[in-house]
Specification:
- The longest helix is centred in the last third of the chain and has 32 residues, at 142-173.
- The protein is built from seven helices and no strands.
- The protein is mostly helical and 180 residues long.
- It has one domain.
- It starts with 21 loop residues before the first helix and ends in a 7-residue tail after the last helix.
- Helix 3 crosses helix 7 (142-173).
- The chain is flat and about 85 Å long.
- The protein has helices at residues 22-27, 41-48, 53-71, 90-111, 113-124, 129-136, 142-173.
- This is Phage protein.
- Residues 1-25 are annotated as: Disordered.
- It comes from Acetobacter garciniae.
C-alpha cells in the first residue's frame, strides 16, 4: 500500500504590528485607538470641545463633496443605503459630480474664498494648525498663529454646519429643490 501524497501546508505569518511604519509615524500624529488613525485638525477640535459633532459631520460632508467633485471618488457613510432604482452611465455620473461641485460653489459663495482655503488646508491637505498659521499669519510666532487659526477654523466649521442646516431647511421648504 502506498501512502497518499500530502502537500505541505504553508502557514501564513500573522502580522504582529499593523500600525504605521516608522517613516509614516514620523510625519503625522496618530490617535491612540486601534487601529491608529491620523489625528486630523477636525478631530483635535472635537476632542478639545471647541466644536460639536454636528460641525465635524459638516466638515466630513464638505470633504466627501470635494473628493467626489475633483477626483470622482465617492465614500459612502457607514449607514448608507444604496438607491437601486437607477444605474449611472457616464453622463449621469458626471452630472452627479457636477452637483457636488455646485454644492462646493454654494459653500464658497456663502462663506467666502478664505473659508474655502481654510477648509482645503484642514481637510484636503491635512495641515496642522501650526502649518496653517505659518502660511496664513506668517508675522506671528508659530504657537500664537496656530491658536488663532484653530479659533478661526472652529468658527468656520460652525458656520459650515449652519449653512448645511439652512440648505436642508430650504430643501424642505422649496418644492422643486433637488439635493443629491
Amino acid at each position: 500500500m502506498t501512502k497518499p501524497r500530502v502537500k505541505p501546508r504553508y502557514e501564513i505569518p500573522q502580522a504582529q504590528n499593523n500600525g504605521p511604519t516608522p517613516e509614516r509615524a514620523a510625519k503625522s500624529v496618530f490617535t491612540r485607538g486601534i487601529p491608529p488613525r491620523v489625528l486630523t485638525t477636525v478631530q483635535a477640535l472635537l476632542n478639545s470641545g471647541d466644536i460639536s459633532q454636528d460641525e465635524a459631520n459638516a466638515a466630513e460632508r464638505w470633504y466627501r463633496d470635494w473628493a467626489f467633485a475633483y477626483h470622482g471618488v465617492i465614500e459612502f457613510p457607514e449607514n448608507h443605503e444604496g438607491d437601486t432604482t437607477t444605474r449611472h452611465d457616464d453622463v449621469s455620473w458626471l452630472m452627479t459630480r457636477a452637483a457636488a461641485a455646485g454644492r462646493l460653489g454654494r459653500v464658497r459663495d456663502a462663506l467666502g474664498m478664505c473659508a474655502e482655503l481654510r477648509l482645503r488646508m484642514m481637510l484636503v491637505d491635512e495641515s496642522s494648525f501650526r502649518q496653517m498659521g505659518a502660511i496664513l499669519i506668517p508675522h506671528h510666532a508659530e504657537a500664537t498663529a496656530g491658536k488663532k487659526v484653530a479659533a478661526q477654523c472652529a468658527i468656520l466649521l460652525e458656520q459650515l454646519s449652519e449653512f448645511y442646516l439652512s440648505m436642508r431647511k430650504e430643501k424642505i421648504c422649496t418644492r422643486g429643490a433637488v439635493m443629491v
